[in-house]
Amino acid sequence: MKSTRALIAASILLAVPIAAPATGAAERIAVAEASDSVAAKVLLERAVARYKADGDAAFAAFSRAGEFLSGDLYVYALGFDGTMKASGGPSITLIDRNIGDLKDVDGKPFIREMIDGARAKGAGTVKYRWLNPQYGKTVQKVTHYQAVGDAIIAVGYYIAHASAEQARSMLWRAVHEIKHEPEAAIRTFNDLNGGFIQDDLYVFVVDVDDMRVHAHGAQPRLVGKTVGDLRDPGGKLFIQEMVRLSGEREVAEVDYLWTNPVTRKTENKVSYVKRVGRYLVGVGAYPKE
To answer: What are the protein's UniProt keywords (predicted)?
Structure first.
């Protein structure tokens, strides 16, 4: 039997018109995120119904393996004073502690934002960065929450896969940088703190003349190496295709198999590449299957 999330994804996909190849990657990523959001809301509705029926006794059900766990989706609950009441995820260690002033790795006071939103509107959505236990990495998380009596019930989903729009946005930022100061830009692209490496998004730069890598935010060992004959696990000469297509189009789109630095799995990747002088500049996204 298919999982709830898989059935939701299928229903959303059927509702999306067949797209032109150039927008296919963006739509696949959007469909995947939409299905995760809907699955989180479905689980939240179930948790809210349980809490309405059982009151605080529902916290035990939320905190144990079973009906309120679905893949990397889990329920957690807060009191309006900021006390963690229940959690089926890594925050289970925070139960009975006051986390009202808790901030994510970027310093965002997301718990306070959630409490304030629940008081003002009764329900809402908050975005922050949190540990995904499935991959052991901190990634963006989107959480839907609802106030029920004295509690705030929440369910969130992880965005381990950046969107096509985010990839294209980073590409244009990189293009701007490399046009102005190529050498400084390349140093920045390779710097973990340079602002061009986030989750599964990063910049890579290849010299179109000698096919040598000048920047690679995920695999620095490739810097300085010639990659003209590099093939993906399916045998595709994807670098050659990038160079060829980038000479024909303003921005080329190339799909191939590559390791996702977040999941550490080989996944389908769609990279957007542009020529800037002698350089091929690219940023890619991994459409979540």
So the answer is: Cell membrane, Membrane, Transmembrane, Transmembrane helix
